[in-house]
From TrEMBL, chain A:
Name of the molecule in the record: Fe-S cluster assembly protein SufD
Domain of life: Bacteria
PANTHER family listed in its UniProt record: PROTEIN ABCI7, CHLOROPLASTIC
All residue ranges annotated as the SUF system FeS cluster assembly SufBD N-terminal domain in the record: 20-172
Domain SUF system FeS cluster assembly SufBD core: 196-424
Protein family: Belongs to the iron-sulfur cluster assembly SufBD family.
InterPro entries: Fe-S_cluster_assembly_SufBD (IPR055346), SUF_FeS_clus_asmbl_SufBD_core (IPR000825), SUF_FeS_clus_asmbl_SufBD_sf (IPR037284), SUF_FeS_clus_asmbl_SufD (IPR011542), SufBD_N (IPR045595)
A Pfam family reported for this protein in Swiss-Prot or TrEMBL: SUFBD_core
TrEMBL record, chain B:
Segments forming domain SUF system FeS cluster assembly SufBD core: 218-460
Name of the protein described by the UniProt record: Fe-S cluster assembly protein SufB
Gene it is expressed from: sufB
Lineage of producing organism: Bacteria, Pseudomonadati, Pseudomonadota, Alphaproteobacteria, Rhodospirillales
Residue ranges of every copy of the SUF system FeS cluster assembly SufBD N-terminal domain listed in the record: 139-209
Annotated GO biological process: iron-sulfur cluster assembly
């Protein structure tokens, strides 16, 4: 407690101040609180946080948890995708913005709050069973942020896809961070008094049954202009032969802090097909941990991100090949303008048993301005000899020949740069397996690029 | 399948092979008591007759070392080191030979056994037209012989032990010592700064191209002795030097510590090529004994258009912790790192480089080839950092790992940090093994399996081996053969 | 007034002077061929006129339609009707051919205060023009020049010229890398665009292209200067005797 306590840490205080909850996961919460207390808010001295500094988060003043009334409508930043929508506002289910009455066949959705309080009519035993799907830190090591979620989580979704279900209609999970207390224009997030920050701890537990196929789109967005902090955790299990397409868009407001930890276990022959598009927030860190537990399991974790202003965008990935003939693919592209910073950390572990592993990482970054920075750490840790693993990383400016070619055709420099940036990014969106989501993400990206200032570096 | 299993067995055999440099030499030694404290540091300095500033510098380093934590970020398991159980000063009793004739014949014999040509006439008696190599030999803690001094002096080149340089060129030593690797850099460099006993010093005057390869051979002979040599090379404006370093140690059950520091300085238009073949005793197949090789090597390209090129072939040591680096300060300066690292049995290596781009249009190139066999663990750890002022900086990195057998590990940990939009950085890495197809292809052409493995491994390392000076290439190739096979030459 | 008037143009690349005093006048409706051996400054001339970074005019003037060409940004020059057909057309991964051309054409229209083209109408014209050059629709959908053969790239350059309707087109070694059939198609495309209001500067190493695009004037460029000017007969003479005389003369 010594070292961690000496730093400014609003969450230590919040843990001290919190009321004890006697719900189904009370012991888990205690362990999580202890785990956070031991580690404290990560600093850059911690290797896994070497490039991303949460100091600004520690300086936010947090309002006591207040029930924010759910808004009538969702902001335009939400992905425009035809889907069955399920919405969390500040980590709590918003029934009015959720299509709970038209869930596709084979899909069971429960509110975490109901399960925790055993309100859904399920017996205690069933309630316990469901809560057993939550863990302290979703299996991440040294993960105080995930533990913090467990200590404070109030609500979220428990979603089950039945064995063999072929779910055509995608589910669309909307995570809204709302805070209208700091809505004075021109007041940056992180500046003291004006508005207290709202913290939320959204949680998802998703279980995709044997040979089931499903698409789950996520939009992480904000509303109200006040500072927010979303500390989310997703625990996802794919059973044998399951296929999950999982395009995730983070498009939070400029004053938002966004930290999300996604833990995946992928069984034999199952395929996770994820994509992370990060467009918003003041600081965003999305961490994905995928464990390939059965032979021929596949994890595709691709993504794209865009930084401008002083934004920090962090993608941290860990793939654990724990069975033979497993496959992982990680391709990320980033564009950084202003004084923004992009972080890409990817570690691929191949255990001795995981012979014939095929693992590839690729990171490409475009730096557009003098103050921008990119930090990449593509790491391989390999203990099996019959593997094909590789990684690549590049960083640079737009290609000058391409730029000249466009201008020689009469396209003004700013437009030409925008076209090349879009081309660089769009290419990566092709990895999204679901067409509707691909189109929606494409539009969101184009809208974001249009708004982006200072593209002419 | 059968073929592969046999290959693995053969590779395993190699660990049981005799370490060819594993003999020890019985000579009279002058030693300071075991352990290190302020008094020992003062005594080392006194034995060398050092000026006060250097004694003070050592003491400051020592004071800091006591407080400094051991580095813990590397991916090697270092057993706790009892720093008080090491001799910090061991020198052959007969001090300061005036010429080779005065060197203890037993030492000369040792170097002969190692195939190192200390006697100039032997080199001359070799193949007609063979390139000359000037050698500085460091035996345990002190330099015992430097050859070809005269030829070099005519060109104004200074090539001597660093103890001698402290006496003869104090202004150069004072100006540059610790200017690239400050004693505060890391725990091992800090200890070295406090207790270093000898090493080589090179100064190439402006516009001079050194007419021969300069070479140092390091030999740890005495038991329970640490070796803490310090090398300082300064290439003045427009000069060129190629420097070779080789290392061996006798086979002993206890692990021995080697914590060296190498500092290179290249001024405007100067070029330094630094090649190492490291063959310290690696310990036996169970990981008993062997050298802990904790080395801080760094070059500063201070001048415009300067160039520093590191080439290393690392086959020895129980634990290697080493990152020869380049600080590219001068505009248009170039840094290169070419590395072959082979780990077998229980060897552990965490090695790589740092390229820090500060000046405009600085370029760096990293080619790393790691081969892991037996139960060894090997990590490439590299940093490429581009600072905001480094307009037009370029880096290309290629690091490839080859695994032989299913019980070893090969890891790649690159850090790539760019803060300049005009910089172009490219990093590629692959991991593979010797494929059955490759092996079968060789076999079907009548090449035996051992030869095939050697052939493939040498092919895998080719890009790096080609950068070695001729004198070293043959030895290095042989070492690769020995480390992996034994019979391949 | 001449469409293009180059006077004593000197230009440097990386601090080395490549053009050492070029004088050239091109009137609307004319086709000028500039021939010369490798390294004579042909590509430097075309890049300097198009305004590429790193090609710096150090002396002299270039007047285009009465305006100072050297004072304009590259895209401004293009909007003013200057077109460079690249010797090595650049690949643009991720940028669709149709989008690219539409953006270029609309940039030009906006520049001239005209309304942007309706997407349907644009695609229709584009298809017609592409068909005339033997380019399948599928090629227009692909990213610009990515995976194109040498001939396809040159055809694509010609298509862009046809769509953008320049007043002065500079063809930089358009014949390089073309087989005879592709050469014919590209030349035909160019000839169709010949017009009393439009001029061409055809830069080439070989006379072959000039059998298909017949020039009004031929100039020999050597070591950064025009050392001889004449009619199309001069090209024939060069074909027969080579550049040796002129290289020595310069």
């Amino acid at each position: 407690m010594s070292d961690a306590r000496t730093r400014q840490d609003p969450f230590q205080d919040a843990l001290d101040a919190r009321a004890t909850r006697a719900d189904a996961i009370a012991p888990l919460r205690e362990r999580a609180a202890e785990a956070y207390r031991d580690a404290g808010l990560p600093t850059r001295r911690v290797e896994r946080w070497k490039f991303t500094d949460l100091k600004g988060l520690a300086k936010l003043g947090f309002a006591p948890a207040a029930e924010t009334p759910a808004p009538d409508a969702l902001p335009e930043t939400v992905a425009d995708v035809e889907a069955v929508r399920l919405t969390l506002v500040n980590g709590r289910v918003a029934p009015g913005l959720s299509d709970l009455d038209r869930l596709p066949k084979g899909v069971t959705v429960r509110r975490l709050a109901d399960v925790l309080e055993a309100r859904d009519g399920s017996s205690d035993e069933a309630g316990e069973g469901a809560s057993a799907r939550l863990s302290v830190d979703a299996g991440f090591t040294d993960a105080p942020m995930a533990a913090l979620n467990t200590a404070f989580v109030e609500d979220g979704w428990l979603i089950d896809i039945a064995d063999g279900a072929m779910v055509d209609a995608p589910l669309h999970l909307v995570f809204l961070s709302a805070n209208d207390t700091g809505n004075d224009t021109g007041n940056d997030a992180g500046n003291d008094a004006a508005g207290s920050a709202v913290a939320s701890y959204p949680r998802l537990s998703l279980h995709v049954g044997r040979d089931a196929h499903v698409t789950i789109v996520e939009s992480h967005v904000g509303q109200g202009g006040g500072p927010t902090f979303a500390d989310g955790v997703s625990e996802i299990a794919l059973e044998r032969g399951a296929v999950l397409r999982h395009p995730v868009m983070q498009n939070e407001e400029a004053g938002a802090y966004h930290v999300h930890s996604t833990a995946l276990t992928i069984a034999e022959g199952a395929r996770y097909d994820g994509f992370v598009l990060q467009l918003g927030a003041a600081l965003a860190r999305r961490e994905v941990r995928a464990e390939l537990t059965g032979p021929k399991a596949e994890a595709h974790v691709n993504g794209a991100y865009l930084g401008d202003g002083a934004r920090v965008v962090d993608n941290t990935l860990f793939v654990d090949h724990a069975a033979p003939e497993t496959v992982s693919r990680e391709t990320f592209k980033g564009v950084l303008d202003g004084t923004s910073r992009g972080v890409f950390q990817a570690k691929t572990l191949v255990r001795p048993i995981a012979q014939k592993t095929d693992g590839q990482q690729l990171h490409k970054a475009l730096l557009l301005a003098d103050g921008a920075e990119v930090d990449a750490k593509p790491e391989l840790e390999i203990y099996a000899d019959d593997v094909a693993c590789s990684h690549g990383a590049t960083s640079g400016d737009l290609d000058r020949d391409q730029l000249f070619y466009l201008r020689a055709r009469g396209i003004p420099e700013k437009r030409a740069r925008a076209m090349l940036i879009e081309a660089f990014m769009i290419d990566s969106l092709n990895a999204i397996g679901h067409e509707g989501a691909r189109e929606a993400f494409r539009e969101a990206l184009a809208a974001r690029l249009n708004r982006m200032e200072g593209i002419v570096g | 399948m059968v073929a592969t299993t046999e290959t693995i067995k053969q590779v395993e055999e190699l660990g049981r092979q005799k370490y060819e440099a594993g003999f020890s030499t019985d000579i009279e030694m002058d030693r300071l008591p075991k352990g290190v404290d302020e008094e020992i540091v003062r005594m080392i300095s006194a034995k060398k007759g050092e000026p006060e500033w250097l004694t003070d510098w050592r003491l400051k380093a020592f004071a800091m070392w006591k407080e400094m934590p051991e580095p813990d970020w590397q991916k090697v398991a270092v057993p706790p080191i009892d720093y008080q159980d090491i001799y910090y000063y061991a020198a052959p009793k007969q001090e300061g030979p005036k010429s080779l004739d005065e060197v203890d014949p037993k030492i000369l014999e040792t170097y002969e056994k190692l195939g190192i040509p200390l006697k100039e006439q032997e080199v001359l008696a070799g193949v007609e037209g063979a390139p000359k190599v000037a050698v500085d030999a460091v035996f345990d803690s002190v330099s015992v012989a430097t050859t070809y001094k005269k030829t070099l002096e005519e060109k104004g080149i200074v090539f001597c032990s660093i103890s001698e340089a402290v006496r003869t060129h104090p202004e150069l030593v004072k100006k540059y010592l610790g200017s690239v690797v400050p004693y505060s850099d890391n725990k091992h460099a800090c200890l070295n700064s406090a207790v270093f006993t000898d090493g080589s010093f090179v100064y190439i005057p402006p516009g001079v191209t050194c007419p021969m390869e300069l070479s140092t051979y390091f030999r740890i002979n005495a038991e329970e002795t640490g070796q803490f040599e310090r090398t300082l090379i300064i290439a003045d404006k427009g000069s060129y030097v190629s420097y070779l370093e080789g290392c061996t140690a006798p086979q002993r059950d206890e692990s021995q510590l080697h914590a060296a520091v190498v500092e290179l300085i290249a001024l405007d238009d100067a070029e330094i090529k630094y090649s190492t073949v490291q063959n310290w005793y690696p310990g036996d197949e169970n990981g008993k004994g062997g050298i802990y090789n904790f080395v801080t090597k760094r070059g500063a390209c201070r001048g415009r258009n300067s160039k520093i090129s590191w080439t290393q072939v690392e086959t020895g040591s129980a634990i290697t912790w080493k990152y020869p680096s380049c600080i590219l300060q001068g505009d248009n300066s170039v840094g290169e790192f070419y590395s072959v690292a082979i780990t077998n049995n229980r060897q552990q290596a965490d090695t790589g480089t740092k390229m820090i781009h500060i000046g405009k249009n600085t370029r760096s190139r990293i080619i790393s080839k790691g081969i892991s066999a037996g139960r060894a663990d090997q990590t490439y750890r590299g940093l490429v950092r581009v600072l905001p002022k480094a307009q037009g900086a370029r880096n290309f990195t290629q690091c490839d790992s080859l695994l032989i057998g299913a019980t070893c590990g090969a890891h790649t940990v690159p850090y790539i940090e760019s803060r300049n939009p005009t910089a172009q950085l490219e990093h590629e890495a692959t991991t593979s093994r010797i494929s059955e197809d490759q092996l079968f292809y060789c076999l079907s052409r009548g090449i035996g399996e051992e030869d095939a493995v050697a052939l493939i491994v040498n092919g895998f390392c080719r890009e790096v081996m080609q950068t070695l000076p001729m004198e070293f290439a043959v030895e290095a190739q042989k070492l690769i053969g020995i480390s992996l096979e034994g019979s391949v030459g | 007034m001449a469409l293009l008037e180059i006077k004593d143009l000197h230009a440097e690349v990386d601090g080395t002077e490549i053009l050492k005093g070029i004088d050239l006048t091109v009137n609307a409706g004319e086709v000028h061929a500039i021939m010369g051996p490798n390294g004579s400054g042909k590509s430097t001339l075309s890049y300097t006129l198009a305004g590429r970074d790193g090609y710096e005019a150090t002396k002299g003037s270039v007047s285009y339609d009465g305006k100072d060409l050297l004072d304009m940004a590259p895209d401004e020059r293009a909007c003013e009707g200057l077109f460079l057909a690249f010797q090595y057309p650049v690949e643009l991964p991720g940028v669709g051919g149709t989008t690219f051309l539409k953006t270029a054409l609309n940039a030009k229209r906006r520049y001239h205060g005209e309304e942007e083209l309706d997407a349907m109408a644009f695609v229709k014209t584009l298809r017609e023009k592409a068909k005339a050059l033997g380019m399948p629709d599928e090629m227009l959908k692909r990213p610009v020049n990515v995976g194109f053969s040498g001939g396809e790239k040159k055809r694509n350059e010609t298509l862009q010229m046809a769509v953008l309707e320049p007043r002065l087109a500079i063809l930089d070694e358009t014949d390089s890398g073309l087989d005879i059939d592709a050469l014919k198609i590209v030349s035909e495309g160019v000839n169709k665009l010949r017009d009393p209001n439009r001029a061409f500067v055809v830069i080439t190493h070989y006379q072959r292209l000039l059998d298909y695009i017949v020039p009004d004037h031929v100039h020999v460029l050597s070591r950064g200067r025009i050392v001889k000017s004449g009619t199309k007969e001069l090209a024939k003479e060069l074909e027969a005797n080579g550049y040796a005389d002129y290289v020595d003369a310069a």
